[in-house]
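call fold(seq) -> tokens
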Amino acid sequence: MTIGTAYRVTVFGSSHGPEVGAVIAGVPKGRPVDLLAIQRALDRRRPVGRRLASRRHEEDQIIVDVGISHGVADGGPIRLHVVNQDARSSDYDRLRDTPRPGHADFPARVRYGANADLAGGGIFSGRMTVGLVAAGAIASGLLAPLGVEVFGFVRSIGPEVAVVPETAPLSELRRRSSENEVGTPDASAAARMEECIAGVRRAGDSIGGIVEVRASGLPVGLGEPFFDSVESVVAHAAFSVPAVKAVEFGDGFRAATLRGSEHNDPYEVRAGRIVPRTNHAGGILGGLTDGAELVARFAVKPTASIAKEQETVHLRNLQPARIVVTGRHDPCIVPRAAPVLEAIVAIGLTDLALRGGFLR
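ret:
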């Protein structure tokens, strides 16, 4: 469960095990590591304080085991974790022989056997992203001296789409997104999104949406073609997040409807720098950053655990069965996915920056 080349992240634990966390290798010796920044990132991911989120109450207080001394990386692997304090595995006992639709239960049982620990989703749970968020916060700290900033926000939930200025500074988007529960910079859309989430919760259902991540201040030429292009590295990591089902950069799927004259980004000189005038490419050409802001969007599926009765089969007698999933679940995980996907982008960019000599 490891990703990365120069900046390597290994996640460990399980949803209802004693802990979840990550081992991060590649942080240069002597680099400051802001533990408060890590904690702030984890707090953005927590459901506590969100009216429309899971009632599972985890403190998620970061514990550093090795690799950081007095706020500075010692050059060895950094191991950090949080304790699982509010797991209720009994909620899943009666579901052991009836795989939940939308979950990894069935293929995981076939792959790992009848004794696989799938309480709360086991290693296939979104709970595993805690370690990714921590690793992403460290990565963002490494990128900051280069002038690189990464921020993720909710672009849409169900049919409700935020209107976001393409040229807005990330600091402004961050400020606006912090002012509502769903984490979108569009206050009007936020109210509609919250009502949408409340509606599906009342119906015992769930809904998905889109997270957008932008990265500004990137140097030109970051990326390792052919198979480790910026898109390849980011998409590889993003598809490891259990709920992500599609990724696009820049115009993405819309590019298939355009002509070259519409999609190409003309160059101009601005403040003494050659930059694209528009950003249909999302800041990436030929797998390399082109000086524009990186723009990536991630489709997050509806939460698989819903209160509606669903059809499945009994694994022992192969007869049809019906189940109702109990426990504590988010009717929409998109707001909590935003800091996770922000972390994914930061991890990928840091790995490429170290490999390309932009970071030392």
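The longest helix spans residues 334-355.
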